[in-house]
Design brief:
Blueprint lengths: L10 E9 L9 E8 L5 E2 L5 E11 L1 E6 L17 H15 L2 H18 L1 E9 L4 H16 L4 E7 L11 H10 L5 E5 L5 H15 L3 E5 L9 H12 L5 E5 L8 H14 L2 E4 L1 H7 L16 H6 L4 E3 L16 H12 L14 H7 L14 E4 L4 H6 L6 E4 L2 E2 L19
Helix pairs in contact: 2-3, 5-6, 6-7
GO biological process, one term: cytosine catabolic process
Organism: Dinoroseobacter shibae (strain DSM 16493 / NCIMB 14021 / DFL 12)
InterPro entries: Amidohydro_3, Metal-dep_hydrolase_composite, Metal_Hydrolase, Metallo-hydrolase_Enzymes
């Protein structure tokens, strides 16, 4: 058969492989069939049948930790040395000089078009929110939510460093902007500062007053003394914060004393905190020193988290900006690299949920489903096994939205050339 010549309208795809965990079953891949009705929903078997020759089928992805406002600035503001501090200073300079509403809109639109073509259906993005940028990016983001409705569901998280937080400063207005944004989440970067606990108490109070969930960048360092994850868990427990809490990165866990790190994870599990791992960005930035081969991977303790039933997701993080020079908002790439970096290929069969169902549940997006009645939002690959899936980029995949194949043509980088020019 011509792999990409699927009929229009109602039909049944026979002889496909689907992860058993996404069907509520035990084991690895299940050989089954998937049917689509004339309305574009998954259904009971249809009269027209197409033999898919063992193709691996997944629901469309949720990418729950991204930076759409930073994306695609590498061409004008590359990281000078590849380090975390180099990324911070370079982005700060670029933001101050270039982040108008039109600049952010065009780069954000470019990234969303990439994500959509690759098969992503929902995205949570962090938005740099040091004033006046919050007043530019959040109104723009609400416009993008409306523009992309029905294609990609969008959420935004404000992003400031914890040293910029206070209960009586400008962040209060930022929190109000977040609360005005559908699905808005209160966010902050945590690192060891002397009064971190007081700042966390104020942060949780501000979120609770507005009915907002919390999402933190946490311990994005290989320094074992950085234990702000533990501080977040202890403070959330102390104040009784009961909205969802998500933490990203958590790199320092991998360099801490084993007993201490695992004790922190026990506390994280007790409080009910969600974790999102960003292995591509962490591998790129962490343990980077000029002329020295990196020793550490930077990935957090995902196996130990899963063993404690801590919800774990993986996501793209940065794209072609000083924090990560590469990437294309492609969750198949994230799956492939996370599997290799984090050794997800042995021991359990449900890691695929960390790229689909788990991030959707954490964010409160509509749950991806392969059950009859759900929209036929699917990623179909020629791969017949996980080994085949992870061995190639699956660039010939089919993406169905509402049962119909979408145009997977990616936007040309040349579209952004004028944004890369040096201001006169």
């Amino acid at each position: 058969m011509d792999y990409r010549a699927l009929p229009s309208g109602a039909f049944t795809m026979t002889n496909v492989h689907v992860p058993a965990c996404l069907l509520g079953q035990d084991g690895d891949l299940v050989r089954t069939e998937i049917s689509i009705d004339a309305q574009g929903d998954l259904s009971e078997p249809q009269p027209i049948a197409v033999d898919m020759e063992g193709a691996l089928v997944l629901p469309c992805f949720t990418d729950m930790h991204t930076h759409l406002d930073k994306g695609h600035i590498w061409g004008r503001s590359p990281n000078p040395d590849g380090t975390f501090m180099g990324a911070l200073s370079t982005v700060a300079e670029d933001r101050a000089a270039r982040w108008s509403a039109e600049d952010v809109r065009r780069r954000m639109s470019f990234a969303l078009r990439c994500a959509y073509a690759h098969g992503t259906r929902a995205i949570r993005t962090h938005l740099d929110s040091i004033p006046p940028q919050d007043g530019i990016s959040f109104p723009l983001f609400r416009d993008m939510q409306a523009e992309w409705a029905g294609r990609i569901e969008l959420q935004a998280v404000c992003l400031i460093g914890c040293d910029h937080f206070s209960t009586d400063g400008p962040f209060k207005a930022t929190a109000d902007r977040v609360a005005e944004t559908p699905g808005g989440v209160l966010g902050m970067v945590t690192y060891p500062v002397p009064d971190l606990i007081d700042r966390l108490r104020g942060f949780f109070a501000m979120a609770a007053e507005r009915g907002l969930a919390a999402d933190f960048h946490v311990d994005e360092t290989m320094d074992p003394s950085s234990e702000t994850l533990r501080a977040i868990a202890e403070t959330a427990h102390e104040v009784g914060f009961d909205a969802p809490i998500t933490v990203g990165h958590c790199c320092s866990l991998g360099t801490q004393d084993e007993a201490r790190a695992l004790d922190t994870l026990d506390l994280v599990a007790q409080v009910g905190i969600n974790v999102v791992s960003l292995p591509l960005c962490n591998l790129y930035l962490q343990d980077r020193h000029a002329g020295r081969t990196p020793r550490g991977r930077g990935i957090t303790l995902v196996h130990e988290m899963m063993a404690r039933d801590i919800p774990v997701a993986f996501a793209s993080d940065n794209t072609r900006d000083p924090f990560y020079a590469y990437g294309d908002m492609d969750m198949v790439e994230v799956m492939r690299e996370a599997t290799r970096i984090g050794h997800l290929d042995h021991g359990r069969f449900d890691w695929v949920r960390a790229f689909t169902a788990t991030p959707a549940a954490i964010c409160g997006f509509d749950a991806p489903s392969l059950a009859p009645g759900a929209p036929a939002d699917l990623v179909i690959t020629r791969a017949r096994s996980w080994n085949e899936f992870f061995s190639r980029p699956q660039s010939d995949r089919i993406v169905l939205r509402g049962g119909e194949p979408i145009d997977r043509t990616l936007p040309d980088y040349a579209e952004l050339d004028d944004l890369m020019e040096t201001p006169q």
